[in-house]
Each structure stands twice: as C-alpha cells, then as structure tokens.
Fold this protein.
Amino acid sequence: MPRQVLGAWIKGAVRRPARAAVVILTLLIMTIGTLGALVAADTLEQLFVADAEATWGEVDVEVTSGEAGIFEEGSARRLGVDAGAESPSWAPRLILRAVVESGERRDPDAVVIGLGAEEQSFAPLRAIQGTEDVLRLDPDEVLVNERLAARLDLEVGASLTLLLAVPEVSVDQPGTDVPLRTPARTEGFTATVAGVVADAGSADLGRTPNVLLRRDALQRVVNFEGFVTHLHMTSAGDSDDLIRTISPVLRLDDLVAAPVAEDALEIAEDEGGQFRSILLTLAALVVAAAAIAAAQMLIALAEDRSREIAVLRALGAPGRTIVSLVTIESVTYALAAVILGVFLALPVAEFLAGRLSDHFAAISAGRGREQVALVPVIEPATLLTGAFVVAAAAAFAGRSAGRRLAAVDLDELLRGPLVHLPRSTPSSRRPLQVALLGSVVLGTGLTGDDAADALRYIGLTLMLTAWWLHRRRLANEPERLDRRAAGLGLVWATVGAGVLADFSQGYETGFAILISAGIITIGAITVLLSGRFRVAVGWIRAYAPRGRWQASLRTAGAYADAARGRSGRLIATFGIVLFVAASLEVLGSATAIDVDRQSGGFDVLAESTVAMEGNRVGEIDGWQGGVALWSSFVPEDRFGVAPPDGEDEDIVRLRYPVRMIAVSHQLIAAQQFQLADVAPEYGSTATALEAVMSDRNKAVVDRYGRPPGAAIGDDVTIDLGLGPRRYELVGVLDTFLVGGVLVSPDEYTELTASNGSTLLLGWAETGTSPEELASSVNDWGRDVGADARTMQQVGADVVSVNKTFTDTFALMLLLGLAVALMAVAAVLVRSARERRPYLAVLRAIGLQRGTVAASLAAEPVAVALIGGLAGLIGGLSVLRLLFAFGFSDLAFVIDWVRLLAILGGLAGVLVILCVSVAWPHVPRDPSRSLRELA
C-alpha cells in the first residue's frame, strides 16, 4: 500500500473526530471488560494462593492420628529423626479449640497451641509487646497473636480465661487390645498475657486468633502428659518424598501424614481457574457484542468517506486496499482504546475481585479465620493478552466493514453521496468451518466429564447449524427454510437440552446447558421475527403514548424490515444480554426453597466451639425440644463421590467444607425432614437414617452436601488422611440447611476426634418466636461460644452465598449492555445516512425537526425493546420448562419488579440516546439537503 494513500486516509479520519470517538468508546468498553476480567482473575487466583500459603506458613506436612486423636511425643520425635535431611524443621504440637474471654470481651474461635523446644528449628516469633520466647513462659503465662490481641483489646499483663475443647481420645491400655476411650470434655484455664507476637510463623497458623503457651503446661491442664495432636514438618524437597521416607514409622504407630501445603495450593489454583473461566466467559460476551457494534460503526464511518473511496477506486486501488485501510483505522482506534482502557480497567478489576474477596472473607470470618488482604495483581503478560484480544477483535470488525465497502459498485460510489451496501452472501466455506468447530466441541464433550453434557449439546447444535447453512446456500426459498430451521431450533432448545442434559450433576453444572438452550431460543425467535418486524413493532405501538411516537413507530417497522440483518443482530444482542442477566438471578436464587419445607420441624440451628451439654438445654428460655449432635467440618476437597467402578483419583470432590454429623436415635425421633431422593427400600427419612445408624457403610446427605453427579447407590467418600472411606448413598434430605453428610456414630468417632455435641437443633414452645429462641440459646451458650440462628436466617445465608457470586458476575453484563447501547447508536447513524432523502422530504413537507428525529429514533428503540422482551420472555420460558423438568423441586425465582424496572429504565435510556444521536442528522435546511441529493 502506498504511503501517500495511507497518509491521506489517516488525515481524513482526523477530520471526523466525533465519529472516531464513538468507535473508540465502544472499543474502550471492550477493553475494560476484557482487561477487567483478566486482571480480576489474576488477582483472585493470587489471593487464593496467598491465603493458602499464609494458612500453613512453614508447614508442609502434617501428621495426625485420625482415630486416637492424640499420639505420643516420642513417636513424633522418632518421625522427625527418621526424616533426616528431608525435613529441616519439625515440631510436635498440642492444638485445641477454645473460647477465650477477657473482661467483657470474648472470642469463640480461638486456637490454643502448645509449643516445645523443637520450635527453635522454625523461624523465631517477633514480639510486638513483651516477650516472644514461649520456652521462658511460666505455666500460667501465654502469648497471643496480634489478631487475638486486636479482637479482645489485650496487652501485656492482661488476664485471660480459656475454655478448652478437649476432644474424645483413644489411648492404648497395657495388656489388652481394647483402647481406653475418654469422652470429649471441657477444661477451664486462667492465664496472664506475657507477650503479643506478630501474625507470622506458628503464631499465624491457620490464620486464626491463636494463644501460644508451653506444651508441657497445656498437657497438664488437659491431662495429656506426653501426648500431642499434631506433628508439623517442613520439607526440603517434595512433600510426597518426605511422607514416603517416614511411612514405615507412620504405619507402625497408626499415624497419617498429609501434604497440607501442597493440597491447599492445589485447591487454591483450582478455585482460581474456576473463577477465571467464569469471568472470561462473560468477557467473551462483551467482546462479541463490541465487535458487532464496532463493525457497524466502522461501516457508518467509512460510508461518510464514500467520495474518498470512490477516488481511490477510480485511480485503480484494488478492493484489498480499501479493506486494509479500514482495518488499519480500526486497529488504530483499538490501540487508543487500550491505552485509555488500561487505566479504567484496573479499578473495575479491583471492584470485581474485591466483591468476591469480601464474600470469601465473610465466610472465613464465620469459621474464625482471617483472610489475607486483597492485593491487585497486574501482570504485563495479562495486559498484553487483553490488548491483543481487543486489537484482534477490532481488526476482525474492520476487515468485515472494509470487505462490505469494497464490494460496492464503483459507478454507485462515483454517483454518491449515498451508498447502498450489497447484502452479504454467506461463504461457501462457512458450513464446513462451523461443522469442524462443532465436531471438535462434540468430541470434547464425548470424552469429558464435568459439564460434558453442555459440550455435547453445543457441539451438536453447531453441526445442525452447519447443515442449515449448507442447505440455505442451495435453497430456492431461503426465507422459508429459515423459518423451518427456526421452528426446529425452538424444539431443539427444549427437547434436545432435556434429552442431553444430565441434571443429576446439580443445578450449577446443568445451568450451562440451560443458558445454551436459552441463547438458541433467542436466536430462533430472531429468525422467526425476520420479515415480521413491522408486526412486532405494532405490538409495541399498541402500548406507546399517543402523539409523536405513534406516527414514528408506524414507519419504524418498515425501516426494520428493510434492514433485517442489522435489526436481527440488535435483537439478538439485547436479548442475550438481558436473558443471561436474568438467568444469573435464577441461579443465585435456586436454593431459596420455602424454609418451612427445609427446616425439618426445627426453628433454630446453633453451633459451638466446645460441647453443649444436651441434658441442660431444658434450661433455655422458650425451649420446647430438640437434639444435640456430634458435629465437625470436613475440609474442602475432602468429601466427594466416586464414579461407578472408578479409582480413588476419579473422585469428584466438593470445593467447600461440609458438616459431618453423627446420626442419633434422638435425631431420628425429632426430625421431620422430607426426602429429595432415596433408595427404593427406604420409604421415609427415619428409615433411611436408621439404616445409617445400623450400617456404618451407609450415609445420607442434604442438598448442600450432595456432590455433583452423586446418585442414590453411588459411593460418597470422606478422606481425612486415612484414605477415602466409602459410604453407599441411601438418601438425600430435601434441605440446604443441614449442610453436610450424616454417618453412623461409630464411623464418626473413628474418623475424627469428636469435640462432643457442637450442633444443636431445636424448636420453640408456643408463644416464643424463633428469633427469641435463638437469642435465648446464645445467652445460654455464651460460655461455650454458641452461635444460634433461626432456620430463616440459615436459609437466607445459603441464598446469599449464591447471589453474591451471580450478582458480581452480572456486573460484567452491564458492560455488555453498554456495548449494546453503542450498537444502537451505530445502527442509528447508518440509518440516518441511508435515509437522508426521506428525512429531507419529511422536513420539506413541513414536519417539525423533533418529529422527524423521533421517526428516525423509533426504529432502534423498538427493535432493542423487542430484543429485550425476546430474551426475557422467550429465553426464560424455555429455561423455566427445562428447570421444571430437571430441577422441579428447586426454586425458580425471578424478581419481575426489578427486571421490568430495568427494562423500563433501558427504554428511557434508549429514547434519550436515540433522540440525541438522531437530532444532529435531521436536516436543518431541507432545501439545502435536497440540493445536495439532487
């Protein structure tokens, strides 16, 4: 391309700064969405990794006794010695949960850690006040970390009262194979603060409020002389190599070792990858919408330069030169958008990551943990990737616009100034390209596991689309074929999704195929409306106010029919964006089942740090009855489902903690839970729970604790370090409020060192509200760290967990909506240019400028509203049908007031935008405009 030609083209672009600014603004929104998603994903991933690293600090391997609860210090030292150079640092520790009180303040989530001389191999503690040397403490002196000091306003010399949760333990007895089992109990202990130490090393272990004291002193308080609960070790190399080195001693002493730091980092990376995929999927919607809008704007911008194009063509410039010029111009705008977008995307990324981070921090705080601070992560490679995506999308849009302009007949260009672009003809290679893409997606779905049903559905949809494109090129009546294909598309959206979807995978996984079905529905509706836009606009006109807009809407339908391609793209863009936003709300509210149905007859659920004495619950004001249960949490990634005939490595694990509960006869008698699913031989909840009581190889879960894909008869697994223990799933409780898995009491005591009855379910007597009972339970259980909530509150918390995610992701769709509005502006500019003769005639016959502007603006307003209604009504109708088929027992909640308010607000914004854009294009002097067109 000659340099002079490029220079002249650039000068022409500079002379049209307003139009160029609109293109840059569209690409700027694309940049913000893309870079914001990428940077937010990097930030969240780093947050998860940093939190995992801080939780374990220097500890790489943790050794415990899963069944006994405690083991001898001598065994721990022998393991450390046998590890040799594989473990440069190791220390036996006695770790217990406790409620700590100082004056009027208390912390129910404290952890008490007994440390010994072996701690000297780890990094020393750093004193904030007083001493940092644990070994120099008196038996009644303790150190506290900064976290606990801040919560209880502690300083050196302060007095603490600790109520220790001493777990149930099993100790071998000489001369017999039957161990001595000591039940769980509580022990009181009063101490003086000798120092406040920084949150680092052992003082920061678990990111919890920690109390540190001499191990021997703590052992005497709880009568565990010579015993510890944990051995923490660092690893000089791979943690698995260290575990293999000490495995003979582990087997000898019935101990288990876990690479805790490595496991935590793996979970963190998986969670980061999950959020990255969600954010990038939403960003892809923004990119696609922006690319369509940018192409429309570039065409409109280049149409204004038809005379320049005509001169170039007359001088012999080939069509590819026009394509190259428009593409270069588009990429130049993209570079300007990227430069501006980098500065605007970072606050957006920080906001998105901050919202999700705050949510996780609140969950961690509920478990007594403190999450690490969010630190924005800005990687040059990420910024370059985002810039490349924006530039590539802009280049694609520019090339598309350039090819359309290059195809205009030269004689028409020379006659100017109006240019009518030829209708685009589908490429003969397009069906093959779509079929190849469909086969790749389908093949991935046939070999995949998670969400494979969605991949299969999308792959088959693409292959059917390829068949339609092929037939369309050969059809004598393509419009008739389009209507038939759209009708079949509506059938495929419902029947195909219903047949291919594996709804047993859970509503989160199944939602991918539901969204795909909704998008296919909107596409089919758009095709069916093609050629009937005048009728569709007539529906809107029936509800429009009388006056100027009635007259304008009469012509809007005809205009829309005359530009079916543009109208269809606009309808699909608005429809899909609003449909996905509404669908995210459905997903976020799917757990909002009626609480009376979920409560199991109970009014209040209470948890505590140390055991609540079940025989004293009658002292609670307003207490009618209930049950106290053994309960503890199974960490994330430790509970899952084993596929039929699958190996341990094939287990599908839950990515969040679940509560493990020991079934009791009192629970069976007191509960009124319904069943969402059950084995045929168990006809009631009581029967299923009795089967669990009598057979330690069976388990019951609730909806919250049901692993993805777990079906009745499958094996659910719990792995607390001894390897996966398998249980036949015999029932699913119809509730999200229990939050876990119910096993037999024998199995519970073998899996974990019980802290006693730390879960309380109860109902209020007549005349006492659930809120009053929850307050009474908190007052009664204050000393043991009880936290009581009504079942209504528990249900609201479960819904809030989901809605926090979906509402945050919905913010990304606001960028897509902004792009859709820019697309409206682009369509309006093109319409104004194409209809300059008509506008001039309307002004010449005496119509006011405002009336003509309203006539011009009515088309995109009406078409965009049709798209919004198509998305909300058509897409959600199909979604509702499939939801009823696959998840009929879950909630399908849509806030119609909010959605209709959004639609009404959108209509208002559209009217203001379109009138503002249309006004400058209405001729001020009709005679002059008519002379220019002559």
Q: What stands out?
A: The chain has a mean pLDDT of 83. DSSP finds 28 helices and 26 strands in the chain.
